[in-house]
Amino acid sequence: MKQLLLAISIMVCLTSYGQNVATQKVSLTGLIKDKKTGQALSYATVSLQHKTDSTQLTGALTDENGRFSITTTTGSYLLKVEFMGFKAYENPNFELLKDSNLPTVFLEEDLHTLNEVEVTAEKTSVEYKLDKKVFNVGKDLLSKGGTANDILDNVPSVTVDAAGGISLRGNNNVQILINGKPSIITLNNGLEQIPSESIEKIEVITNPSARYEAQGTAGIINIILKKNRKSGFNGSIQLGTGIPDQHTASLNLNYKSEKFNVFSTLGYRYSNFFGGSESSQTIFQPTTLYIDQMNDQQRNDNAHNYRVGAEYFINDKNTINFSISRYQMDNDDFTTITYNYLDEAKNIERTEIREIDYFEPMDYKEANLTYTKLFSKEGQKLTVDVNYDWWYNEELEDISYKQSFPTSDNYQAFNTRNYEASDDLTIQSDLVFPISKDQRIEAGLRFQTRDITSDYYVKEELDGQFVTLGNFDNKMLYEETISAAYAQYGNKFGKLNYLFGLRMEHSSIRITDRINELNLPKDYYNFFPTVHFNYQLNEKDKLQLSYSRRISRPQFWQLNPFGGFSDVRDQFRGNPDLNPNFTDAFEFEILKTSDKFTVNPSVYFQETSDFFQFIVSPDEEGYLITTLVNLGIEQRLGLELSTTYNPFKWWRLSGDFNFYKFKQRGQLEGKRYDADNQTWTARINNRFKLPKKFTIQGSFNYQGKSVNAQYTSYANHYADLAISKDIMKDRANISFRAINMLDSRRRILSAEGEGFLYESESWWIGRRLSLNFTYKFDQLKN
């Protein structure tokens, strides 16, 4: 047996040697365009196949500019270029003997295939680029009839908690973009208003290049909305219903001609569900106080949205794109909070009940204008983008407070109002200038301004009239201006691609208020270098090394000192003097692919100065007050592994695992807040294609325990299941989802500090069941 293995090894070595002598490595680059419009085709497939049996030997997808690059060996191939809805281009005798740049390939639309149902990818594919990972959203059953949050919950590296909070590799200081631009809809859990059917892909950028704004120490998540590329009139309709009450409807319409592409999306969502929490507090000063608290909440959300826009193809080198979006939602909630005050034997001494009738109308509007110019020099492009959004939301509360045990008295009534509004303008220009086939320079300018108003009061009923409480009556004004410029240089040396960049940002921030308690101007210049290396080991394997410097500016809610009045025993108060923090991030990753496997391990290190930390302390009345402060240094060292495995055509298995250790060092008012700990998350996803056009998909998620100086967040897990069937000659699909089917998705926290102990368990929706129907239609232009 040993001799046989030795012989086989010698033969393999000799064969490999012979191949190396006979062939040499060469590269093939090129550009793919739409013949009718002259527009570059992103994500077209370029493959080099065996001439006799059409077996694919290597290939690549075009990037967002329609470009591709393939490294392979010299030889004679069948060259094939394919893109959905277009006729394939073939060259059956393509000789590749040296580094070559393929003449631009123009693809023609295929009216026959366009007349058939649009077929999207059966699975979510992943592209690895020099500075980001792109997750092309396919037929992911677990997000059918869902929202952007449902899609993000299945994207590796991304975690969505039970309350809708989003983090990247366990860090919630992440910048979320829509179509490459900041959008107010990403705040206040607004991603719940974006239907999953309107999303084409998700870009995860853990170490962004200088082209991106420096905000977000964890990195960037960029949500790309769909834009139909097919000629003629087409669209889709989606209807959904669920238990507990959850009803959705969306309509997507698109018309494309030689000169215009008009698109629109309409959406409606209604939900009515129950949530709650249980908590206990022990306050040790001035005397020991024990409190058990129960929250029961009924949430009623009524939302609708639309997005309409048009592209005008002036000619094959100039395009104008305009769109306007609006998201409206009314939150109508009713919450009952029961406080049981206990003696040292844990017997109830008295019970108080607080009822809150909460109503919050929200209205977000956004307009975008983009001009794109392609130059005669291949690859040179200028983009000018103007984005304006204006929004308001108003929080109104009617609060009653009474004692129910041992006697029914001490009735109090309050009402509160917090009106917030903002005007945001962003202007950005980007230029890509290729020097040669491999060299390019990119540069850009950006200007952003934001004005936010928060006008709030609390009134108490006294003698039949509501009187304003002096400590809860103010108007806060927040003005922010950020100017930026960047430049970066990219080149290729053999198998090594590299990208060097530098970004400068000037931030001018001012906070004032009506009663002149706040006058906090901040003005600072910062430089953000970025470095990216990509080394191509062979056709399928590569190494990547990157560095970037990032900033996390406080969000408005983190600055606003009025954090609500619904639960007086547990209040959050923003810190208007909060400073930004800065992160230096390093990352090394390996990508290895084969016919059935894709493995992507990575190691990352982040060091953050002046990191944000929630600090809890009891006030003089024994109420717990949470605020956000800047502490010293936080270091994170992590290992992440993402993998996919396709053992058979009908079975796809994927998983991701993230483990990181962190060290926090900081001091506030003479007290140390140090922590050394580690945590991990894991996700596994199975997808099976069954006979009769059935597909079933299931996932399991686990989030490990995490401990810092005051807080402990305990482990939790949840499982989702979905099944779908294509019907009506594949023009329609019906699907069933069971989300959090074990009813195990809860947030369990504890906090301990000087003078207090706090424990809580919260749940939002619980188990969800939904049924969704999708129908697609096409009417081609003759």
Describe this structure in words.
The structure is a single chain. The longest helix is centred in the N-terminal third of the chain and has 21 residues, at 2-22. Residues 1-22 and 111-124 have low confidence and may be disordered. The strands form 7 sheets. The chain has a 22-stranded antiparallel beta barrel. It is mainly beta. The chain folds into 2 domains: 25-114, Carboxypeptidase-like, regulatory domain (Immunoglobulin-like); 234-779, Maltoporin, Chain A. It has 4 helices and 47 strands. The N and C termini lie far apart (68 Å).
Question: What is the topological layout?
Answer:
Elements: H1 2-22, E1 25-34, E2 45-49, E3 56-61, E4 67-73, E5 75-82, E6 89-96, E7 100-101, E8 105-107, H2 111-114, E9 125-128, E10 133-136, H3 148-152, E11 158-160, E12 166-168, E13 174-178, E14 181-182, E15 199-205, E16 219-225, E17 232-243, E18 246-256, E19 260-283, E20 289-315, E21 318-342, E22 348-374, E23 381-405, E24 409-434, E25 440-462, E26 465-493, E27 496-513, E28 522-536, E29 542-552, H4 556-559, E30 570-572, E31 581-593, E32 597-609, E33 612-618, E34 624-630, E35 633-648, E36 651-665, E37 667-668, E38 671-672, E39 675-690, E40 694-703, E41 706-707, E42 711-713, E43 716-727, E44 732-739, E45 747-753, E46 756-763, E47 768-779
